[in-house]
Amino acid sequence: MHISQSLLAISVFVGSAIYLAATGELRMELKQVGKRELRLEELQRRQALAAALEKGNLIEISDANPKLLAEPSTVSSAMTITGGATEKPLDIAQGGNLYHFADEELAAKATKDPSGALAKSISQAISRGGMKMADAELYTLIDKQRKRRRKSGSQYNSEGLDLLVGDIHHRPIIVLSFIAVTTLAACSFAWLNGQFNSGLMLMVSLFALSLTWVSRQRAKVHQLRLPDINGIEMPFFVTMGSLALIYLVGHFGPLGSKFNQLDLMVLTFGLLGLSLISLYGREDLPWRIPSAVEGIVTMLVISRLAGALLFNAVPFPFTVNLLDDSHGLIDWQLPWLFHEVTLLALVLVWEWIEGFRRTNSMPDHRGAAGRGSFALMVVMISAGPAGVMAGILCMKRSFNWKQPAGVALSVYAILGGLFAFLAWTEGDDFRVGLQWAIFTVGVVMLGAHVYTVFAEMPKWTTAWLWNAHIILPVGVFAVTGWSPWLVVCVLALSLATWVGGILQLRRGMRVMGALDLVLALCLALLILQDGILEPNMLLLMLVALGIELGIVAWLGTRHDMQLAQD
Predict the structure, then answer these.
(1) Nearest alpha-carbon partner for 438 in 480, 400, 397
(2) What is the pTM of this model?
């Protein structure tokens, strides 16, 4: 096919896609608008019914033929009769009560007595009001709004309308279909020749942006929003996923190379641009910005881990040297430098929006798990600097929110960021320094655990306990290797855990301390079999064991009554 014919076919495809995005979804938009209006009308009717039941005055809603009072096939209300061309009421409201009569004559007679005594004596039934009605659908809408509020703000500039109809969106089926078709075509070309990745991702981004912009404007005409995925409008999120998929397919192909990362720069730039455009014109930026930052980092993590684990198509985490010039400036250094600078900017934006939300007394939007997970994701794709900064800022905010789990995860993020610097160095100086840093952090974790035990801070004790059990043995092994010092380390952990369980009356910690003791004895037996145990180290191990058993026995005897109750 001649190039002019190809360009003409592409132009027709793009033009038809934009035209269908602008006009083809009108019926779906009107359907959603009708659904919104119908729900508002139904909820207003229920609110009126609830108010009438509470006041005991059902005459106010008798003309509405509510479903809760009559069958849909009934022509007139159950509390009125039709005589000829007029309807005469059989119910009279007096003194806050609603009196029901069998016929018109009794009702007319009762109206002559304003005191209500006659109506009370001759009425068939009395509704006194005070009835409360719970709307199950309203509780469902409240739960949906609570989930949406984690990722986005209120719609229609009203909390009430957002509660009632905030889950009704415009569904851009045509736009998503065109994006999917374009992505599949781009993946086919990327598989055949990975060198086309950069251009393909750029074309898909521009095409999807034009369709999404048209769809968003069409939704605004009817005061609708596009649906969200993790706080990002669906077409933008799908396009971001499409770019990551094209990037992976290009590197999986026969001509893909993990040392040619120019398309990584295009991927990072495309994700950044899509996120910025998705925030344009939004009024709930304090909710949307964290979601946009998370979306970029998530796509980069997926593309990095999937590419590394499948076919070794991209570099593994912690193996990227930004200063390596053996693979070229354009294909290696510039993409990774841009990638790292972007991660640093995203971490700073995350920190800024965290401070903004806290300053304006907004609730914590992610919690300890979300905050720690974000820092760890940055570490997985960073070459070092961004990971260290993410860990430090995560620790800062976790202390502000008093979240032990967040602080514990931030420690791993900082150590992981430092570990990534190993790819930058050739000598052993940094490696040795990192080993001693891990050992020092483990000792600090053990000391923090002991401090929280005696300071009666059980909320923090568990976090430091787990960190000490993971980091300290790793640090000891990194510094001393397979040696008796591992046994001394585990005995120290056993003592601290067991004592903490006794003083804080926590059975789980006492069991864990006992298991640590068993593990220490098993390690000692293995070391004895290897024949690497010196007499001095044997003496040290026995002294440590004796100290632990003596302290545990003394504390157990001293707190025997409390332990018996526990």
Answers:
(1) 480
(2) 0.81
List the beta bridge partners of residue 92.
99
- Mutual angle of helices 26-55 and 197-221, in 10-degree steps: 50
Chain centroid to CA 289: 13
Tokens 């009666």 sit on residue: 456
In sequence order, the β-bridge partners of residue 316 are none
Amino acid, single-letter form, for residue 84: G
Q: In what order do the strands lie in the sheet with 125-127?
A: 91-94, 97-100, 125-127
Query: Is the distance from CB of 481 to CB of 525 less than 8 angstroms?
Result: no
Say which residues have a Cβ less than 8 Å from residue 132's Cβ, sequence separation at least 6.
50, 53, 54
According to the model, what pLDDT value does residue 461 have? 94
The DSSP symbol for 283 reads S
Amino acid in position 415: L
What is the C-alpha to C-alpha distance for residues 555 and 342, in angstroms, rounded to an integer? 54
**With a cut of 70, which residues of the chain have pLDDT below it?**
1-2, 53-100, 102, 112-113, 115-116, 118-134, 156-158, 530-533, 538, 559-566
C-beta of residue 431 within 8 angstroms of C-beta of residue 329: no
Q: Can you tell me which residue has the tokens 């309807």? A: 87
Cβ pair 311, 357 in contact under 8 A: no
Report the helix count and the strand count for the chain, using DSSP H and E.
21, 7
**In terms of Cα–Cα distance, which of 69, 75, 71 is closest to 98?**
69
Beta pairing partners, 83: 86
- Rounded (10°) angle between helices 173-192 and 3-23: 150
User: What is residue 316's DSSP assignment?
Assistant: P
For residue 494, which phi and psi values (nearest 5 degrees)?
-60, -45
Is residue 259 within 8 A of residue 332, CB to CB? The reply is yes
Whole-angstrom distance, CA of residue 25 vs CA of residue 388? 47
Tokens in use for 451? 């401090």
Cα–chain-centroid distance for residue 112? 66
What is the Cα–Cα distance from 275 to 78, expressed in whole angstroms?
57
Q: Do 167 and 144 meet the contact criterion of CB atoms below 8 Å apart?
A: yes
Assess contact for 409 and 372: CB atoms under 8 A.
yes
Spatial separation of the C-alpha atoms in residues 166 and 142, rounded to whole Å = 10
14-66, pLDDT tens digit by residue? 888 888 887 877 777 778 888 888 888 887 887 777 777 666 555 555 444 44
Amino acid type, 119: A
For the chain, what's the residue count? 566
CA-CA distance, 25 to 175, in Å (whole number)? 9
